[in-house]
UniProtKB/TrEMBL annotation:
Belongs to the strictosidine synthase family. It comes from Olea europaea subsp. europaea. GO terms for molecular function: hydrolase activity. Keywords: Glycoprotein, Phosphoprotein, Signal, Vacuole. This is STRICTOSIDINE SYNTHASE-LIKE 6-like.
């Protein structure tokens, strides 16, 4: 108890000292007009039926699994963990029988992952950039910079049916272990980009984003959604049609900070909110 009180009492001091020492730390105000809800979004704080049908897979064997990519042909689930491994999880009849295999270690921190069209797994690695891991486990760097600026926190990736990769670099200033400073500073250091494997070209589509995180392509291939975590919103970037190249709000005023986003193939997007 005394310890807890001590920690709680000294935490602000420690934070202040840390922030003071980071001389490049330059706090700014978030754009209030974008954070002020136009219409309040009402959501239940709890969803009790949600947990009824769920089972824990690989409990105790996976350290901080971030994203998942399911291979419907082999039934294997791929996920990256804090120890740098891309894990292959085979789920048998019951979750208790699931098997975790450490497959390839990126030497970094695999965050986002998606299956490519040639049996490969494409990884958004916070430390390394965008990686291609082929079926036989060979790893290749696809890109780690754009317009002369290196990625510092490559976060999430998705692929269109015609093979173009869309991905985010959450911050060009702060690395993953410093992400809190990015939030506290309140300045937009993130970029939303594309990579075309046929030309090996990386294109910056949007810059000055607030910690752009999860990415998903709409099922009709018309737009890409990405979430800006501290802004509590997700935006749409059009890749086809009249609105091509423009941005719209997909959802704002979320009841927590959005992380990854996935489409379930049945008309629903799932957004992970690690905080409320
Ligand atoms: C799945 O379960 C069956 C029956 O218990 C077993 O024979 C099989 O080896 C298991 N497969 C894996 C991949 O664990
Ligand atoms: C990944 O590498 C494999 C093997 O070279 C290649 O067939 C595939 O097209 C690559 N994927 C991307 C997205 O570059």
């Amino acid at each position: 108890m005394a310890y807890t009180i001590f920690v709680l009492a000294t935490l602000p001091v420690i934070m202040a000292v840390l922030l003071y020492q980071l001389d490049t730390f330059a706090p700014a105000q978030y754009p209030d007009h974008e954070l002020t809800p136009k219409q309040p979004l009402f959501v239940p704080k709890r969803n009790t039926h949600m947990l009824h049908g769920s089972e824990k897979i690989g409990a105790g064997e996976l350290l901080g699994p971030e994203d998942v990519a399911y291979d419907p042909i082999t039934g294997i689930i791929y996920t990256g963990t804090t120890d740098g491994w891309i894990n292959r999880v085979t789920v048998n009849e019951s979750a208790a029988e699931s098997k975790v295999e450490k497959w390839v270690n990126t030497g970094g921190r695999p965050l986002g992952l998606v299956h490519g069209h040639h049996g490969e797994v494409i990884i958004a690695d916070a430390v390394k950039g965008l990686l291609n891991v082929t079926r036989d486990g060979t790893m290749e760097l696809l890109t780690d910079e754009a317009d002369g600026l290196k990625f510092k926190l490559t976060d999430a990736v998705d692929i269109t049916l015609d093979g173009i990769l869309y991905f985010t670099d959450a911050s060009s200033k702060y690395a993953l272990h410093e992400f809190l400073f990015d939030f506290l500073e309140g300045r937009p250091h993130g970029r939303f980009m594309s990579y075309d494997p046929s030309t090996k070209q990386t294109k910056v589509l949007l810059r000055d984003l607030y910690f752009p995180n999860g990415v998903v392509i709409s099922p009709d291939q018309h737009f890409v959604i990405f979430c800006e975590t501290p802004m509590r919103m997700c935006k749409k970037y059009y890749i086809k049609g009249e609105k091509r190249g423009s941005v719209d709000t997909f959802i704002e005023n979320l009841p927590g900070l959005p992380d990854n986003i996935r489409y379930d193939g049945e008309g629903r997007y799932w957004i992970a909110l690690p905080t409320v």
